[in-house]
Known about the structure:
Elements: H1 8-24, E1 32-38, E2 43-47, H2 58-68, E3 74-81, H3 94-103, E4 108-113, E5 116-121
Amino acid sequence: MDVEPLDAADEALVEAARDALRRNYAPPRHKVAAAVRGGSGRVFVGVNVEACGYGPCAEPIAIGAAVTAGERSVVAVVAVHREGNEWPVLSPCGNCRQLVFDYWPDATVIFRLAGRTVKAKARELLPGAYESDFD
């Protein structure tokens, strides 16, 4: 897998997710926030929604906000959570990796790897991924 360090735009996206979580952190229901940068450059955020037995992750909420606002491409995605007084990046679950891959396989995903925050293309995070035909 080819991973790269974050650049200034990536750091700004991480901070947008952190800001969303700082404003909305409410355990046990809202413990993760995500931010996505659309092809237009606009940033959209969302928090996870916890319910009895299941709740969507923050990434699909942020993606839904982007799509609802008319964004048709997402170029980067990140999620964060809270650890004490810190707001570190949280690697996406398998379902969220598949979601980003399904829509934008070349989107950048910011995640944790061996204690570092790095980025890679969505397609790199799911070798041998299921490919559906939504066209």
